[in-house]
Amino acid sequence: MGFFTNQLSSVIEWEGNSEGVLFYKWKSAEIKKGSKLILRMGQDAIFTYNGIIEGIFTEEGQYDIESDIIPFLTTLKNFKFGFNTPLRAEVIFINTKEQLVNWGTKNPINLKAEGLPGGMPIRAFGTFSCKVKEHDVMIEKLAGIQAQYTVEDVKDRIVSSLDQLLMNWISKEGHDMFNLQADAASIAKGIQSDLDMEMRKIGIEITDFKIESFSYPEEVRKMQEKAAAQSMVADVGKYTQMAAADGMAAGGSGSAAGDMVGLQMGMAMGQQMVNQMNQNNAAAAPAAPAASGASTGTIPKFCPECGTPTNGKPFCSNCGAKLG
Fold first, then answer.
1. Which of 98-102, 142-146, 180-184, 287-291 has the largest mean confidence?
2. Looking at CB atoms within 10 Å, which of 87, 193, 224, 256 has the fewest?
3. Using CA atoms, how far apart are residues 252 and 266, in angstroms rounded to an integer?
4. What are the beta bridge partners of residue 209?
5. Residue of higher predicted confidence among 320 and 39
6. CA 321, CA 304: separation in Å to the nearest integer?
7. Are 71 and 47 in contact (CB under 8 A)?
8. CA separation (Å) from 142 to 24, 130, 131?
9. What is the pLDDT of residues 9-35, one digit of tens each?
10. What are phi and psi of 76, to 5 degrees?
């Protein structure tokens, strides 16, 4: 008798890697006498019979089917195992852990922009988190037709809605088309609310939604970088110096001609700095006193060099010094 009992016993468990899987349906359709349920951390086990939920087990550990489980099932409390009467019930394992998923728009989204008849094509990238919220809704909507449901299934469902949601929330708030990253948090919050409402229809909650970045066409990106660089300079002279420095950096890794151009630019910039310093020093220096004997426009009575009377003449008659 013991031989047959061991032969009929089985273990009900989710052995495989549950990462990225929201629910898994146990493959066997029969639960035999002597069976054990093993429930691991982050798992719930749901027993269904004829498509109806009979019981949900959430505490990790090992359960005996006859003594620990059957007494707690709603309509099967009086079920008695016999030699030929295995329990034909289904067990669905639920992954209760929150799942983090990367997302990105499949194709560029054309947003309305003034001066661009076809719109501004952008892409967006980020992450979202989800988890099973309502077991009964998920089983009713999904478990009846699928053996398991993964985060990739959730991702496909969400990405298919993102294009329209992004367009709605960007245009609804009147955001700056060329600076969407500044409003990424508010746009993401609105999208999360809409996605959560939609996904709860299949028992899944969207616990977080983030937009990490918006991606513009290369031409627009270059224009933004140039505008940002110009805003950092105070006048055209400084912008010219920045452009020259960029030319030096670009020429340094190129041909010999490029190196020469870069060197000339560097010398010109250095000379410009020296001239500027000289001008500043000249403006700050005090005026030098007039040299002894320098012309003042008035002829002295005595020669400042030898003391001889000048008699009003422009040159000294004794030493020849210039007097006026």
1. 98-102
2. 256
3. 11
4. 128
5. 39
6. 9
7. no
8. 11, 16, 15
9. 588 999 877 788 999 988 776 788 888
10. -115, 20
The residue written with tokens 């809605």 in the block is: 161
Separation between Cα atoms, residue 131 and residue 303, nearest integer Å:
107
CA end-to-end span of the chain: 143
Enumerate the H helices of 211-253 as residue ranges: 218-231, 236-252
Phi, psi of 36 (to 5 degrees): -125, 140
Is 141's pLDDT higher than 60? Answer: yes
Structure tokens at 17: 């890697």
- The residue among 61, 66, 55 whose CA lies nearest residue 31 is 66
Which residue from 101, 168, 184 is spatially nearest to 176, judged by alpha carbons?
A: 184
Is it the case that residue 64 has pLDDT exceeding 70? Answer: yes
Alpha helices (H) in 30-150, listed in sequence order:
135-138
pTM (2 decimals)? 0.61
Point out which residues pair with 103 in neighbouring strands: 126
Q: What are phi and psi of 263, to 5 degrees?
A: -65, -40
CA distance 195 to 189: 10
Q: Which of 215, 213, 210 is nearest to 101 (CA)?
A: 210
What is the separation of C-alpha 157 from the centre of its chain, rounded to a whole number of angstroms? 22
Does 187 score more than 70 pLDDT?
yes
Helix locations, 232-302, DSSP H: 236-252, 256-284
